[in-house]
Amino acid sequence: MSAPFVTAEIDSQPESWLKAAALADDLGALLPRAGERVAVIGCGTSWFMAMAYAALRERAGLGETDAFAASEAPRQRRYDRVLAITRSGTTTEVLDLLASYRRLGVPTTALTGTLDTPIHEAADEVVPLDFADEQSVVQTRFATSALALLRRHLGEDVAPLAEDAARALQVPVDGYVDAEQISFLGTGWTVGLAHEAALKTREAAQFWSEAYPAMDYRHGPIAIAQPGRLVWSFGPPPTGLADDVAATGAALETSDLDPLAHLVVAQRLAVELGRSRGLDVDLPRHLARAVELPTSG
Ligand code: F1P
Predict the structure, then answer these.
(1) Is the full-model pTM beyond 0.90?
(2) Which residue, judged by its Cα, is nearest atom 4 of ligand 1?
């Protein structure tokens, strides 16, 4: 079996994050300004990056920031700005929602992986991350590069994150390939990463995974934990959770890497799980590069 596209795309993330950070320095004026009330929207992976950024921006004290799946965003709210994340630039729900906000007079900015797609008309401002676009249907590099760009815009230094991503490419994942199930957990901005990691294993490997805010895991989902299953924490687990997981017999994965780099490890595990099942990890069943729906008119 030849190496899938997604493997090269995962491996290129350290470099791609640095390029994204440089773009934030160049085009930062197009991104949400301090104090603006912002909604961040996307679908699938892009929605999960929106969740992560919204929590980080609000934590940084830069303004109220909501995140929505594009299909669920409240179309009547007069946000100061709407930020859309879409690799393809053609996702129907995103284009549709931006048209609604245009009618309301809400300014919009899009982060996209393409140069010549409908998003360039649908959004008022576009930040193109075409260097991070991908051949695999399964998103990895575009999503994490978009988040690296946004973290840079929040004032973070991306160089140490890129170094962590390079370390993440060396972490062995074969020890987890036999896991029967994984519950991914996060806190604050890493809840979005947990959802993204779980989506990766479902897309690339048809693997049973779930995702929760770490503090909510004890409110029911822990009933799934047992020997042979794995609990994966993005960021340190809340007090007492490691003991609670140990008591179930499930294994617990934690890391001292930046959580975005820890997501790179989860991406690699998703690919290994898919390959161990003989799947085409670049082209999951029932999925296309973008969901383009007939418009209701
Ligand atoms: C987002 C998305 C992906 C998903 C699939 C279909 O598209 O939902 O998250 O993995 O490939 O598209 P986009 O709006 O970011 O292009």
Answers:
(1) yes
(2) 44
